[in-house]
Amino acid sequence: MKRTKNFALVALLQLIAWSGFAYTPDSLLAIGNRAYNQGMYDSALLVYNQVAGQDLQSAQLFYNMGNAYFKNNNVPAAILFFEKARKLDPSDENIQYNLSVANSMIVDKIEQVPELFYKTWWNYFYNLFNADTWTAIALFLLTFLIILITWFVLTKSRTSKQTSFYLGIILLFFTITAFGLASQKYYYSKEHQEAIVFTPAITVKSSPTQSAVDLFVIHEGTKVKLLDRVSGWIEIRIPDGSIGWLPENSVQEI
Predict the structure, then answer these.
(1) Residue 172's CB: how many other CB atoms inside 10 A?
(2) Is 79 exposed, middle or buried, given 0-12, 13-18 or 19+ CB atoms closer than 10 A?
(3) Contact 239, 224 (CB under 8 A)
(4) Which domain holds residue 151?
(5) Per-residue pLDDT tens over the stretch 50-61
(6) Which residue in 99, 124, 136, 217 is deepest, having the highest Cβ count within 10 Å?
(7) Number of domains in the chain
């Protein structure tokens, strides 16, 4: 019976690959999950990539793809898609855990430059929620700010005016902060500012040319910050602050 089910699933996967039939993303995701659960990781990735090809941005999809690549021992691709998933849902503990496991398997163990305390605080709150949640929080705070302003204008009591004024100042600060976090999170989700190295070992150059001075070597799976692009080369920064140039085709953007 199990062999018959597997055969039927394989036939369905081949039909998806060869036919032009328009399956919905949800139905494709369900089929891909069935293939994954039966250990058919290549087939699951075939379906997941077809869903991703429909421009669907989903933390769950990218998480599933990361798991499938990890099961296929493709650690750089697993890290890439776990990072994509975390970009959309930074509060998901499963994504965080699986990403840390995948990162523990790469060659490079780069110490990160210590952050200033206010950056650490900002990044802590920044990583709590996605853009939609921060937007909802900002709108919620704005609503109460408007209520406080109305109370300040209408009340006759001096004490009430003072209370509403100082509360309004505090609430204004938190409202602006929440909108700032929502805006930064939104643009971060749309832009490609980071990438994963996909070349097993590559030398970082001092300038965008093959004859430039060799600076240091990094390996596949390492996450880099994208700084600039010039004629097929990208300027990158690694977590310890070192900067250099790589061929653009040696990385894939998150």
Answers:
(1) 15
(2) buried
(3) no
(4) 117-190
(5) 888 887 888 999
(6) 99
(7) 3
